[in-house]
Each structure stands twice: as C-alpha cells, then as structure tokens.
Amino acid sequence: MAPLADSFGAWSASRRGGILLEVVLAMVLFFSAGAVILAGLGSAVRGMEQLRLDAQAADLAVTLLSRLQIGDLELTDAGPTEFEPIEGPEQELEGWTWQVITTEMQDTIDAGGPTGKLVQVIVKNEQKGYSYRLSQWLATDESGQVVTAATQPAASASEEDLP
C-alpha cells in the first residue's frame, strides 16, 4: 500500500489548481451572500427606526391637535416648545419639540360662512433630523374659541322633522 503522501503527489498540478479555484470561488460566494444579508438587515433596521419615528410623531401631533380641540391648549401660535417629560417608559420625549401655527380663514368669513382657523401642528426631533406636520381646519366662534359638538346649542326638532 502506498503512503498517503505518494497519492497526493500523484495528482497533477492542474487538478490541485482546479480544487484551489473551487475553494476560492466558494469562499467568494459565501462572503458575497453574507454581505447581501447584512445589507438587507441594515436596511430593515433603518426602516424600522423611520417607522418608529413616524408613529411617535403622528401620535404626538394628534395628541396636540386633540388638546387644542378640547380647549386644553390655547388656539394661538405657539412654539417651538419642548414636550414635558412623562412618567413611564412608553415614550422617550427628549429632543422632541412642537409648534402650533394658526391661520385665520378669511375666505369663509367674507362669504358669510362659518369662521375657522387652519391649524398646523409641527412636531420635530432635531437630534434625528425629523419633522412631521399635521394640518386641520377647526371651526371657531366669534371669540376665536374652537366650536365642538359639546359647545354648539342643540337644534330643536319640530314635529315636521320627525318621521
């Protein structure tokens, strides 16, 4: 029986070169696949962070607009103002600011329609370079206060209006 070294020595140089080429190509394919997977994971992480910022900014903007509608905040231009810290780990508000911009709707007043204001709530996170804007038209009375269903006088129904 021939020693193991003799059997390797019997291979031709071209056969050994072919095996080396196969190993190098396999390694290139393996590392290329790994790079594609890592790039995909990085993109997914960035997308998830953007989605988290979108959701948090929308939540904060809707909360501010709701506070304006119920009269908890005055319906005037304000800000930029930092959010007040809240208890609990639900939301991290550090770096977030808000601003309210109101515009009197002159077209509806001149036409004899209801008075109102276009309210823009701008929520920003300067640290992350993110900005979110939410706009809504709010009906107001003569004093500039928001008119809601709770503040409007109830319409009385006559017998003709009933089925």
Low-confidence stretches: 154-158
Spell the H/E element sequence. HHEEHEE
Give the class from helix and strand content and strand pairing.
alpha+beta
- Number of separate structural domains: 1
Question: Distance between the terminal alpha carbons, to the nearest Å?
Answer: 110 Å
Number of separate strands: 4
The gross shape turns out to be rod-shaped
Radius of gyration: 33 Å
Please work out how many helical segments DSSP would assign: 3
Q: In percent, how much strand structure appears in the residues?
A: 15-25%
Largest sheet, order of strands side by side?
A: 1-2-3-4
How is this structure best described in words?
The chain has 163 residues and is α+β, with helices and mostly antiparallel strands. It has one domain (13-85, 93-139). Helices cover 42% and strands 21% of the residues. The protein contains three helices and four strands, in the order ααββαββ. It has helices at residues 4-9, 13-70, 106-110, and strands spanning 78-82, 96-104, 116-125, 130-139. A four-stranded antiparallel β-sheet has the order 1-2-3-4. A hairpin with a 4-residue loop joins strand 3 and strand 4 (130-139). The longest helix is centred in the first third of the chain and has 58 residues, at 13-70. It is rod-shaped.
